[in-house]
Task: structure prediction
Amino acid sequence: MKIYTPSYYARFRCLAGDCRDTCCRGWEIDIDPDSYARYLAQPGEIGDRLRAAIDAQETPHFRLVGAEERCPFLNAQNLCDLYAELGRESLCQICARHPRYIEQYGDFAEMGVGLACEAATRLVLLTRAPMRLSCADGPAPFADADAPDPAVCHALFTLRARLFRLLQDRSIPLFGRLAQALTLCQTVQTRLERAASIEEFIDILAEAAKPTCTGLPGEIPAVSAAEASVGPVEAPGPAACTADIFRTAQALIAAFSPAESMEPEWRALLDRAAADLAQAETLPALAVLFQVDAGSPAASDDLTALPLEATLSPAAQDRVSADAPAAMQIVPDSSAPSPAFSLSAPELPGADGLLPEVFFEQFAVYLVFRYFGKASFDGEVLLPMQLCAASCALLRLLLTDELHRTGALSPDRACRIAQLFSKEVEYCPDNLDAILDAFENEDALSPTNLRQLSRFFARTGENSPIDERRGLC
Result:
């Protein structure tokens, strides 16, 4: 069958012993039936080690060792003894494939690399070139996989191709693209839920996908804002944060805070960002005028674009006065007043450069590539787009908070935070299900509110202050 992969896929290389966050620690490693049979029959000392290391429950798995929960075959050099002695063919299925993921859609399949892997995260997010799809012939990954309706699948992937073109249109601010993609998917979802037949369902998808140049995944050309035709691109305007936007930011952090966390570092990032937002809400009058350096250009000129920090600096406190500019005043909305709140992330004094929006673009395209195709089976085109927009907004919040707490944010650190996201969200089904439930049940995370937050971010700067000279390719 045809196997589609992102253009960066062939460049993936495991870091082996140089990996700082090995996948052979902290994960339950299930053993597939074929590998289990081989391990039970393996002769010699390595066979004895295998049998002693396996917990033979309903789903056999390796017994993890020590407080770090290391695989029993992970040696002191962070290399696999099983691989070293018996070769790659000896690995069980999950070890041989990770961090690759596979989805099969009838007569074609897609494969990618997940961001829970350090090497994959840098490969995906620090590549400048827009993602394209490559195609090769190969065996079916799964012999007994469910197959969606071919006509539905074709129409759905044609729509996804349009989303790719929209998300990769670099003439529009990235978060503006996300807002438009949300509008498109919300409109399509509303119409799909009213479809009276499978034929009408397919017609709705086909109509929404116009204009397109291909059906199934293929080459993805640039698309203009006019061609996207999902609403006008709004010109930058005042970026004061209303109560609704503020509540959406808080709800985002709450929704992505797991009941159980694999990595304490992830929980600490979310708790810290939540605390900063809570403190900002209680500050008097202008509430959240954050400042890193009183001598910076932002401190002396642009009071609406001051960076996020945990407390008001003395210089900023001195500037809070009754005659503050109108742009700094409380901004009312239909529900309740809220202070002007800047979540913008301007360049810090002395920073070496800016990481272009391509970092967030690649993150968004990765999420759409990985999850949108599942709508072939369940007809849910809106939820994957909500996940994409919400995840990008959360990453923006966390990177902004990190930057203005530490004064620096390298590509390496930005990738680490994205990797933590993937481990805690993508690779924990319970956490992901809870997040998707929040999108469906919490008003603050409705498509309308996520779109409003995305447009706010689009107006508060197109770049994040990350040193692009270290690690971008």
